[in-house]
Amino acid sequence: xxxxxxxxxxxxxxxxxxxxxxxxxxxxxxxxxxxxxxxxxxxxxxxxxxxxxxxxxxxxxxxxxxxxxxxxxxxxxxxxxxxxxxxxxxxxxxxxxxxxxxxxxxxxxxxxxxxxxxxxxxxxxxxxxxxxxxxxxxxxxxxxxxxxxxxxxxxxxxxxxxxxxxxxxxxxxxxxxxxxxxxxxxxxxxxxxxxxxxxxxxxxxxxxxxxxxxxxxxxxxxxxxxxxxxxxxxxxxxxxxxxxxxxxxxxxxxxxxxxxxxxxxxxxxxxxxxxxxxxxxxxxxxxxxxxxxxxxxxxxxxxxxxxxxxxxxxxxxxxxxxxxxxxxxxxxxxxxxxxxxxxxxxxxxxxxxxxxxxxxxxxxxxxxxxxxxxxxxxxxxxxxxxxxxxxxxxxxxxxxxxxxxxxxxxxxxxxxx
Length: 417
Known about the structure:
This protein is of the alpha/beta class. It has two domains: about 5-35 and about 210-400, Glucose-6-phosphate isomerase like protein, domain 1 (Rossmann fold, 3-Layer(aba) Sandwich), CATH 3.40.50.10490; about 45-205, Glucose-6-phosphate isomerase like protein, domain 1 (Rossmann fold, 3-Layer(aba) Sandwich). The chain contains 15 helices and twelve strands. Strands 1-12-11-7-10 form a five-stranded mixed β-sheet, sandwiched between helices. Strands 3-2-4-5-6 form a five-stranded parallel β-sheet, with helices on both faces.
């Protein structure tokens, strides 16, 4: 594993016996999750069939395409966005992700894309998600006006349910290129399915290495995932109902956004698995190190003691020397000969120690370096951690009933019913 979990001083805040009992229970939950055929995300690292399917579709696309326009929302977009932004310097083609229906953004995107050199990937497992469908209608119309219907249809890839739904029906009737989403993998767990694999593979990301990292986490990371779940569970029950992710890496910032959905949608539930009303779930908050030291740490140290902190730092990173400019001024001389790597590490350590002095619970994920395998490890590690935490809470971490009512109301307002 290229990720290490440093518990810092958090063991001083919990009872060893209680922690050990929950760890044993959580490890059993992890085994149960991996054996359950209804839970599909644990199988993804062990198969390359989706990569093969994706490559077959890519081979059938028109020549000369240099841009992929992804139309999705939530789990249909956040995973690809996370990986894209982490490895932006390695992309061989442009990946534009539309995951909102802000008309200003739609207008400006429409002005800058070239339909002749762009392929549209519309993603909706149900085939009826209003945001990607509305975007699809808009951009297909744009392509059809520019290229004609026949050429426009050849620049569409549909990612949806394999057998049912409006998008599946459309793809089958029009003979569109399409990819299937596994029945037993929910949207927020779907980055290692064709939902994420297609756009990433198309744009030059080594998806085989992503899967290799995920497989490594499956084989060697369950103890770390369960430890993280137990800590989340214990401190939520101690009144820490806010979890702050403090990420000391610009490249990993989108990972935090991806995790916010995974955490919130999986663990925020009104009822438990027995039907009891529990209204359970912590709130995840994203902070960027060092930027948010200057905007949030005052609150975190001296405000309500209702937070658990998870810090993320990269050990092996590009280094840049701080030059000896203005060396005649003594007030700047302490930086002479230092590097920005040393500076950001000192800032991270200083923030952690300051929070610990205030008695705030925190843990540290030390990441060896950022490559494709590490990203695969992170994806699987936190998917498993979230699932185990849900089992400890006694709730279903794989449904999202609270999301559906807002969708129904929005469709009513649009006259769908």
